[in-house]
Fold:
Amino acid sequence: MFNKIIIVGNLTRDVELKYLPSGSAAATIGLASNRRYKKQDGTMADETCFVDVKLFGRTAEVANQYLKKGSQILIEGRLVLETWNDTTGAKRSKHSIMAENMQMLGKASNNDNSSYNDDSMQEYQNHGTMDNKRNIQVDINEDEIPF
Structure:
């Protein structure tokens, strides 16, 4: 079977970073992807898809360091179905994306702590690949994913 998803969108909230008992980093981000289309009557309409994305290892730490609500990113990964019981015992489920690759898009900001500067980029170059100061690509090692 083939399960691959590529999505570009903006973060709907700041990165939620935590560390697993193994010491590996895990992060969850909310992503909104917009689609503009023309309806049959000729008017334009917008459609937004909201999805949670799971990041692991160094990718999760990089996302926490450089991304914030509104940041634009490209995610490559696979679609997974999460299931759980809510507080009433009812079964719940949702689809989310298990990230395999993350690429930061958009313009770097100079007004906040998440901006890219030569020192932080020099430190980051030791951990991932860098196309330029605006686009950082991080590959996720499958061994870092806890399940």
Q: What stands out?
A: Residues 20 and 98 are 16 Å apart (CA to CA). The radius of gyration is 17 Å.
